[in-house]
Amino acid sequence: MRLPLFRQTISVNVIMLKVMLALLPALFAYIYYFGPAVVVQIVLASLTVLAAEAVMLKLRRQPVLPFLADGSALVTGWLLALSLPATAPWWLTVVACLFAIVVAKHLYGGIGNNLLNPAMVGYAVMLISFPAYMTQWLTPDSLHAAPGLGESFRLIFGSSPPLDGLTMATPLDTAKTQLKLDLTLGEIVKQPIFGLLGGKGSEMVALGYLFGGLFLWQQRIITWHIPAAMLGSLFAVSGLFWMIDADRYVSPVFHLFTGAAMLGAFFIATDPVTGATTPRGKLIFGAGIGLLVFFIRTFGGYPDGVAFAVLLLNLCVPLIDAHTQPPVFGHKNAHKKGSPD
Amino acid sequence: MLSAILVMVFLAVLLGSVLGFASVRYKVEGDPLVDKIDAILPQTQCGQCGFPGCKPYATAIASGEADINQCPPGGDEGVRKLAELLGREYKPLNAEHGEEKPKSVAVIDENTCIGCTLCIQACPVDAILGAAKHMHTVIASECTGCELCVEPCPVDCITMQPIAETLSNWKWKYPIIPIRPIATEKQPQ
Amino acid sequence: MRKLAKFNGGVHPPQHKSESNQQAIAGLPLPERLFVPLRQHIGNPAKPLVSVGERVLKGQIIGQPEGYVSAAIHAPTSGKVIAVGPAPVPHPSGLADLCVIIEADGQDEWFTHEPLRYREMDPSAVRNRIRDLGVVGLGGAVFPSFIKLNPGARQKTQTLIINGAECEPYITCDDRLMRERAEDILRGIEIMGYMLHPTEVLIGIEDNKPEAIAAMQAAAARVTFPVEVVAVPTVYPGGGAKQLTRVLTGKEPPAGGRSTDIGVQVFNVATAYSLHRAVHLGEPMLSRIVTVSGNVERPGNYEALIGTPVEHLLTAAGGAKADTARYIMGGPMMGIPLTSPGLPVTKAMNCVIAASEALFPSAPPAMPCIRCGRCAQACPAELQPFELYWHAKSRNFGKTQEYGIFDCIECGCCDYVCPSHIPLVDYYRFAKSEIWAREQEKTAADTARNRHEFRTFRLEREKQERAERLAQKAAGAKTAEAPAETGSDAEAEKAAKKAAIEAALERAKAKKAQVQPQNTDNLPPEKQQEIAEIEARRAKIREMAQQPPDSTGN
């Protein structure tokens, strides 16, 4: 018999379930503005990750059911499906999921032992390998009728070629390329794909992530440190540049509400396995991601930088944690010992 | 040409004297490596390694005359630590030198002991108390379990007894986590 | 209103106190046999003073304190000693330990005892008496109280804290004690105050015990010395000495140090009560109040003699229900499973919980750690439990020490909140005992090294001395035959020695035949008992010789 005799009725699968629950507002916004294609991707990703997880567990001689039931693989699949373009061909999603589960997760020892965020590894590999597919995003519903379920199927499973005008570059991408064409931001954001806060439609999805993230915080699944530090540093540094030249640098609000900033801040950087764990370490970790996101978006070759920023900071976690250990009870006055009182 | 040679000579003399000074100033007494090896060895002083004690074995390892897997009391863990210290490959204990055994102490059967003092002379750590023609006894807390006293005894009154588990030396075991709870845990009352 | 500080984390497990705190403390019928362990406190076990067959009186000392950190053990009732030897004791190992087993004669006849006139005595003499009366801390650590009653030369005790927090679920023995015997507790506190001269005395009680707080406040209002009863927030482990010190004073006892380093001394309320009995009545620590709760018919608190089998307690509580699977000593957070209900009550046993699968479902299987950090948020020692777990699991003990494993108080908060259901505390205990064992091994190795080096040096010196003597002898005897004579001398000596060994061998053979008769079976019972006693004594001697401290003899 194990002591303590009773324990809190929380388990890993409850945590993962709540994470998926928190993704729902953003998912509804996504469907509302961009059509049901993303649901096809989520189903496809879920099936792939579950199958990959089961096979890997079997190969590693681990009990399959308890580990499958922990829901961690499903969360990885959902995050990937939400990060990839909704009309990405099926094999792109499948390969991304396989890479995430097989390489990033199980080759490192399975849940709890992976150094890098599996979803972001899958995403980054796809972004590097198939950049053309990864920059084609659905235009919001108000500009063009979103593809229905049947059309989504045909798009994803390749029986009909992508329609012109149905997809486009993301607002972040647009702003970046058009800035290079010497347009001022004032002119750029007048284009119809830009909304009030960020991109039209996608800003509402970002709001959904924010809402879901606050739910996770309220449920004590995540602490405030990483999202606050990441969004705060992104806001601060982009604000600084924006104040220097508002024509060449997009506004801090735009930075927060476009791309994967919100998704990254609340759902990806907060992955406990690969993130920093000490309170101070979380602040450094989050701030580092925010800074890198800004610099990759503004000066780098890719339109968005959340995946790379998270992965780079994942690599720094052991160092950050080792140097930010909080003082232990009774050690706080240790260095004062011997001083006259 | 000449200046170059002069510069080189000057540098050689300068650096040589610095090195010479350093070697005198920071001279290390004894061989720190031997002491480090000796610190890993269990100090049983049993001689199973083929050397007359732990220090000589440590010296032999340091000079490369002996291998790191000749110490049965140090066990597998000892070999691993030595391998780590010396940056060598781990190898299993050499069976020629004996096997790893649970830690024991020598116990003298006091009814049989004739007081011959042979075991006292054999004990490498002076852990046997007694005088000629008087009963001898082992100071259990000082006994290293080397077994060197067993053989010289003419009446075979010394036996090695494994140290029993008591409340003082009991250890918490490595937790075993069953993936499926085991139903047989219930004890008969 | 006193301003209270907070400590990090803590948890709020279900209380389950109302089951057992509704009835008054009940007495117990005298058990037939009492199993009194001689190791009931931190430090050296007491040395048995009685032998089999001896009649002992209630309160008679049967175990003498050994060394400084030790306390006396007494006969809980009058009766006959029927055995002095190893018997199972409540310990996580389930191993046996030296016990005095007493068969009660039912008369409960007291040994002579009288109150201590402590105000007229030398403080050191008072402390020695307290040691001989077997008073130890009843809060859990069972540390001999006389040591803590020494004010010490270095730092004055400013704050005396009396711990009535009783933070663990199910346990209500201190609650009932405070409700029913508040005045006696305060009399005990008065003695503590007299010994330590603190500037303030605080009694910390968790606010889930309003009746106890009221009773203590009423009693405190009637005493002549200043004492403050403070209600502290209910959060586990608020009753940990370090945590309570932090809450009441805002100061943290330094790691690895004692609370006295910051001018604080902490005693449990039950210790204060026992001290009162010991000093004002002269009664040694013979009994304690034990909560019996969980899967029993009539949960409650019982005043049990030390050595009472737990079964006896359970019977008094109406017996354990049929589906009871295990018994736990202590609370549900930090307790230890009892290997059998036959084990005796000890000074450390504050609670017995009968556990069933229905009451306490087994923990789900452990899953890998996902570093979610809930344990760190709950840890009252402000550790990073998942890091400790990681290193303890991979037997990287140096790292566990760097992460402060010895600051862990094993409260089980991390275990309680872990979503992966990892038995974290078990890993910490494993790591701690491995580290201790290694340290002991190292000390033993160092001793062996020193002794070996000294022996080598001694042999060398003896050789030299012999050579010198030889040289002197050779110089003194100028005749030519001298060297030859010394040679034959040595040989003759050797031969004589050999002959002596042979003779001794013969004697030994003869003796062996005498000493070890094979027909012990046919001896009369008295004779057999005598042999058994001799054997027992011998085993005892052997065991004592194996105890490391103070038996070196060098």
Question: Your description of this structure?
Answer:
The complex is a heterotrimer of chains A (341), B (189) and C (554). Chain A is mainly alpha-helical. In chain A, 61% of the residues lie in helices and 1% in strands. In chain A, strands 1-2 form a two-stranded antiparallel sheet. Chain B has 189 residues and is mostly helical. In chain B, the strands form two sheets. Chain B has a two-stranded antiparallel ribbon. Chain B has a two-stranded antiparallel ribbon with strand order 2-3. The N and C termini of chain B lie far apart (98 Å). Chain C has three domains: 33-288, NADH-ubiquinone oxidoreductase 51kDa subunit (Rossmann fold, 3-Layer(aba) Sandwich); 304-356, no CATH class; 364-466, Fumarate Reductase Iron-sulfur Protein, Chain B, domain 2 (Orthogonal Bundle), CATH 1.10.1060. Chains in contact: A-B, A-C, B-C.
Main β sheet profile of chain C: 5 strands, mixed
Number of helices of chain C: 15
Spans of at least 5 consecutive residues with low confidence of chain C: 548-554
CATH architecture verdict of the largest domain in chain C:
3-Layer(aba) Sandwich
Total number of strands of chain A:
2
The main sheet of chain C orders its strands as: 13-12-16-14-15
Q: What's the helical proportion of residues of chain A? A: 55-70%
Mean pLDDT of chain A: 86
